């Protein structure tokens, strides 16, 4: 059965380009982004892994560790990393799981037989420090993911975990946010949102981002 939001991300032990990984232990208290790609030495994946390497500081600022996966073996990963570094003008700075035995692919349902019998799809999981799955996305092999969007979702998750707000369509860090509908008490609203709010409708109340 496929994994759902709020499920605990399955733990595993698997080989990687950075040696053996015990997943939960490797995550520690960090957030995690686990993402699969169809195969080594493929063009879209090369750009995705290169771009993720370039976002190292952005991930670090948010306390996030990235880890990639494909069903290719570790010696293939090492050769491919040389190509990624050369062509994407970066250095791959996160592990790539070598899931040749499909242990992790099976746990995370990463092979979709009606799309392809053997290759992993382009799935991605955001995992919080309690090891809960907070975002799942699956893209087709032909479409590279937008990693700015992943950072935007992580910003939203980290904000809304700490304040009684949600983020509206196309929200970017620093924009107005909405007050959660369950919060009704005016005194509490004033205390939580001292910058005030505007009620477009009783259920649509916008307030400046509280941690700015
Ligand atoms: C790619 O990563 O470039 C790719 C992989 C499988 C099918 C199409 C593109």
Write up what this structure looks like.
One of its GO terms (biological process) is cell redox homeostasis. It holds the Pfam family AhpC-TSA. The protein is 31% helix and 22% strand. It is elongated, with a radius of gyration of 19 Å. Strand 10 and strand 11 (204-207) form a beta hairpin. Helix 2 (43-54) packs across helix 4 (74-88). It has helices at 23-27, 43-54, 56-61, 74-88, 103-107, 147-162, 186-192; strands at 13-14, 21-22, 31-36, 64-70, 96-98, 122-127, 133-139, 165-166, 177-179, 198-201, 204-207. The strands form three sheets. It has a five-stranded mixed beta sheet. Strands 8-9-11-10 form a four-stranded antiparallel beta sheet. A two-stranded antiparallel sheet has the order 1-2. With 212 residues, the protein is of the alpha+beta class. It binds benzoic acid (BEZ). Benzoic acid is lined by residues 38, 42-45, 141-142.
Short description:
The protein is α+β, with helices and mostly antiparallel strands and 212 residues long.
- Domain count: the total is 2
Class by alpha and beta content: alpha+beta
Shape label: elongated
Examine the secondary-structure arrangement and name the CATH architecture of the largest domain. 3-Layer(aba) Sandwich
The total of beta strands comes to 11
CATH superfamily membership of the largest domain, which one? Glutaredoxin
The largest sheet has its strands arranged as 5-4-3-6-7
CATH C-level name of the largest domain: Alpha Beta
Instruction: Quote the CATH topology of the largest domain.
Output: Glutaredoxin
Rg of Cα set: 19 Å
